[in-house]
């Protein structure tokens, strides 16, 4: 390890690190500190800042609208995680099971990794549009009324579907690598024992893939909380009646529709705590697995 | 740690082989199972569902009106050229695409350069508190744009950068992920090579250009694709900080087009043309460079 350190100019090293550190401090750490500070103030466009202590935090603690947004986000994240992992795992398994055309199948399911969220949202807006959608007719033909511009749970479901669709590619990329890692001997033994396909996936592959699956649970949770703004903004604008008002969209509205920078900063701090908790969990798990992995 | 990386790399190596070989006789799964028509059928169905929305977008972008209310309407039209021309020229999508490209290229090149420098210092220099510095960089993973865009908005405006290329590039330049991936990769370069370079009295510049970069081609391409996709797909930050159409990026440009549809001034076929255009650059890069991309993902997970 130490033999790798072949240069020792301290000034040189400092200069090499300077750009990254400078940008980190000015555009990452400083704004975050600013958010913590502003969360203690009543602040907005065109009015003088006023120190209010923890009042903004108390406001959020007592706000039933904010509680609802938290509940919606948690439910949304849980469903995104479960939906994405289930679909991706099954897809990965099918690809793993075929001998012919594996490369083609793989590329045709991992491409949504590159899919821009705004494009995903607009395409769904079009195909599921309550009056114009291509799929609206067929769906209504079986007796289901497509009305997600007015119906909260339906709107939630549409945003959820888009979110899962977009995230499949990323998940399959990691899962296929982990599934290849399962020793062939295990697969063969399972087959000799007459273990069915699906049982083999659930009882043999999934336990071995646990580290990767945990990693993906965290990544998908972070994605559900932070990477889904474009879907909500373009599909539902948080509606109808706040049914899709997830935390990140709620924060955006607080800042840029209501211009309450004080409360918005408080909401930023809450989101920071969410990322922090998730990252700590991930870090712990990674450490744990690297012990018995290596 | 290094062993784990090597190991994961080998796993991806096998995967790459399968992808590169495409269709042909390079079965990865040594399952011994007859694959059964059922599995292929299910795969076709699921792949169809994953691809269907984009196929609809492509088809609609070739039609005159873009009113497609039933499945039989999904026959490609003959207005492709006109629609794309109209979107690019008349509705400013060319401009949006150019702005996105500029933003993404600046972010990729800037991030790559400063991250290589930082990882170089962290791995190959004997300096005190190195681990602390690395942690300081890694900790920024906790500070994604959504956590700080409100104060960042104020800061950028105070700097007088609002509505400019600087606003949508400079804040993205520091990258914990890129520094992390590069550091892991540098640590996996065999010690003997590094020691030989030292014995030969190679200086840092020569070392970077003649040893480090040639030995890191795959990873450098891989992180570049990850960074490009990330930058190109940014939506929230450009939405709040760019307030003129002339400087807007494609993601938000789509939202502007859609606004015109809701207002009834524009047909859906143009929005779908815009969507297809916005998807193409990241998709093309991903398909073209899928091998180094997968290899780099293998490092990221560790």
UniProtKB/TrEMBL annotation, chain A:
<dbReference type="GO" id="GO:0005886">
    <property type="term" value="C:plasma membrane"/>
</dbReference>
<keyword id="KW-0472">Membrane</keyword>
<keyword id="KW-1133">Transmembrane helix</keyword>
<feature type="transmembrane region" description="Helical">
    <location>
        <begin position="12"/>
        <end position="30"/>
    </location>
</feature>
<feature type="transmembrane region" description="Helical">
    <location>
        <begin position="103"/>
        <end position="128"/>
    </location>
</feature>
<dbReference type="InterPro" id="IPR000515">
    <property type="entry name" value="MetI-like"/>
</dbReference>
<feature type="transmembrane region" description="Helical">
    <location>
        <begin position="204"/>
        <end position="226"/>
    </location>
</feature>
<dbReference type="InterPro" id="IPR035906">
    <property type="entry name" value="MetI-like_sf"/>
</dbReference>
<keyword id="KW-0812">Transmembrane</keyword>
<feature type="transmembrane region" description="Helical">
    <location>
        <begin position="70"/>
        <end position="91"/>
    </location>
</feature>
<protein>
    <submittedName>
        <fullName>Carbohydrate ABC transporter permease</fullName>
    </submittedName>
</protein>
<feature type="domain" description="ABC transmembrane type-1">
    <location>
        <begin position="70"/>
        <end position="282"/>
    </location>
</feature>
<keyword id="KW-0813">Transport</keyword>
<keyword id="KW-1003">Cell membrane</keyword>
<comment type="similarity">
    <text>Belongs to the binding-protein-dependent transport system permease family.</text>
</comment>
<feature type="transmembrane region" description="Helical">
    <location>
        <begin position="155"/>
        <end position="177"/>
    </location>
</feature>
<feature type="transmembrane region" description="Helical">
    <location>
        <begin position="258"/>
        <end position="281"/>
    </location>
</feature>
<dbReference type="Pfam" id="PF00528">
    <property type="entry name" value="BPD_transp_1"/>
</dbReference>
<dbReference type="InterPro" id="IPR051393">
    <property type="entry name" value="ABC_transporter_permease"/>
</dbReference>
TrEMBL record, chain B:
<dbReference type="InterPro" id="IPR000515">
    <property type="entry name" value="MetI-like"/>
</dbReference>
<feature type="transmembrane region" description="Helical">
    <location>
        <begin position="132"/>
        <end position="153"/>
    </location>
</feature>
<feature type="domain" description="ABC transmembrane type-1">
    <location>
        <begin position="97"/>
        <end position="289"/>
    </location>
</feature>
<dbReference type="Pfam" id="PF00528">
    <property type="entry name" value="BPD_transp_1"/>
</dbReference>
<feature type="transmembrane region" description="Helical">
    <location>
        <begin position="159"/>
        <end position="182"/>
    </location>
</feature>
<keyword id="KW-0472">Membrane</keyword>
<keyword id="KW-1003">Cell membrane</keyword>
<feature type="transmembrane region" description="Helical">
    <location>
        <begin position="211"/>
        <end position="232"/>
    </location>
</feature>
<dbReference type="GO" id="GO:0005886">
    <property type="term" value="C:plasma membrane"/>
</dbReference>
<keyword id="KW-1133">Transmembrane helix</keyword>
<keyword id="KW-0813">Transport</keyword>
<feature type="transmembrane region" description="Helical">
    <location>
        <begin position="101"/>
        <end position="125"/>
    </location>
</feature>
<keyword id="KW-0812">Transmembrane</keyword>
<protein>
    <submittedName>
        <fullName>Carbohydrate ABC transporter permease</fullName>
    </submittedName>
</protein>
<dbReference type="InterPro" id="IPR035906">
    <property type="entry name" value="MetI-like_sf"/>
</dbReference>
<feature type="transmembrane region" description="Helical">
    <location>
        <begin position="43"/>
        <end position="62"/>
    </location>
</feature>
<comment type="similarity">
    <text>Belongs to the binding-protein-dependent transport system permease family.</text>
</comment>
<feature type="transmembrane region" description="Helical">
    <location>
        <begin position="266"/>
        <end position="289"/>
    </location>
</feature>
């Amino acid at each position: 390890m130490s033999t790798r350190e072949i240069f020792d100019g301290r000034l040189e090293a400092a200069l090499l690190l300077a750009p990254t550190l400078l940008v980190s401090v000015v555009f990452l750490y400083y704004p975050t500190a600013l958010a913590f500070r502003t969360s203690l103030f009543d602040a907005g466009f065109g009015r003088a800042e006023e120190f209010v202590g923890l009042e903004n935090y108390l406001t959020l603690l007592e706000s039933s609208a904010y509680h609802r947004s938290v509940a919606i986000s948690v439910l949304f994240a849980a469903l995104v995680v479960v939906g994405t992992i289930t679909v991706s795992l099954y897809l990965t398994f099918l690809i793993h099971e075929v001998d012919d055309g594996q490369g083609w199948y793989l590329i045709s399911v991992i491409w949504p990794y590159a899919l821009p969220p705004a494009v995903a949202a607009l395409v769904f807006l079009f195909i599921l549009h309550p009056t114009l959608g291509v799929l609206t007719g067929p769906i209504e033909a079986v007796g289901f009324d497509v009305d997600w511009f007015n119906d909260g749970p339906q709107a939630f479901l549409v945003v959820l579907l888009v979110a899962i669709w977009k995230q499949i590619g990323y998940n399959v990329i990691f899962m296929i690598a982990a599934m290849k890692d399962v020793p062939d001997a295990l697969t063969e033994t399972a087959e000799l024992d007459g273990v069915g396909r699906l049982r083999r996936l659930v009882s043999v592959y999934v336990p071995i893939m646990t580290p990767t699956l945990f990693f993906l649970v965290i990544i998908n949770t972070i994605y559900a909380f932070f990477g889904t703004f474009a879907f909500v903004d373009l599909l539902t604008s948080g509606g109808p009646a706040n049914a899709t008002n997830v935390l990140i969209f709620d924060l955006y509205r607080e800042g840029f529709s209501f211009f309450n920078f004080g409360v918005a900063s408080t909401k930023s701090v809450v989101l920071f705590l969410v990322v922090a908790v998730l990252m700590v969990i991930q870090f712990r798990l990674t450490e744990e697995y690297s012990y018995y992995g290596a | 740690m290094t062993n784990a990386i090597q190991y994961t790399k080998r796993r991806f190596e096998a995967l790459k082989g399968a992808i590169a070989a495409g269709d042909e006789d390079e079965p990865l799964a040594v399952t011994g199972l007859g694959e059964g028509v059922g599995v292929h059928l299910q795969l076709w169905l699921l792949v169809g569902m994953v691809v269907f929305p984009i196929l609809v977008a492509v088809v609609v972008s070739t039609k005159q009106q873009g009113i497609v209310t039933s499945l039989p309407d999904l026959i490609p039209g003959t207005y492709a050229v006109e629609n794309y021309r109209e979107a690019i020229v008349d509705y400013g999508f060319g401009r949006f695409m150019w702005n996105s490209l500029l933003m993404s290229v600046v972010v990729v090149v800037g991030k790559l350069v400063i991250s290589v420098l930082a990882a170089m210092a962290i791995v190959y220099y004997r300096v005190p508190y190195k681990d602390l510095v690395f942690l300081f960089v890694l900790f920024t993973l906790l500070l994604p744009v959504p956590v700080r865009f409100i104060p960042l908005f104020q800061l950028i405006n105070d700097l007088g950068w609002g509505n400019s290329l600087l606003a949508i590039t400079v804040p993205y330049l520091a990258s914990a992920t890129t520094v992390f991936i590069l550091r892991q990769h540098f640590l996996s370069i065999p010690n003997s090579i590094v020691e030989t370079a030292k014995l030969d009295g190679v200086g840092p510049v020569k070392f970077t250009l003649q040893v480090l970069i040639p030995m890191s081609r795959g990873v450098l391409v891989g992180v570049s694709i990850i960074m490009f996709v990330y930058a190109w797909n940014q939506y929230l930050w450009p939405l709040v900080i760019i307030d003129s159409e002339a400087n807007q990026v494609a993601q938000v440009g789509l939202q502007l087009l859609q606004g015109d549809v809701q207002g009834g001034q524009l047909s859906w076929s143009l929005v779908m043309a815009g969507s297809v255009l916005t998807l193409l650059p990241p998709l093309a890069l991903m398909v073209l460079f899928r091998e180094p991309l997968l290899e780099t993902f293998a490092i990221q997970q560790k």
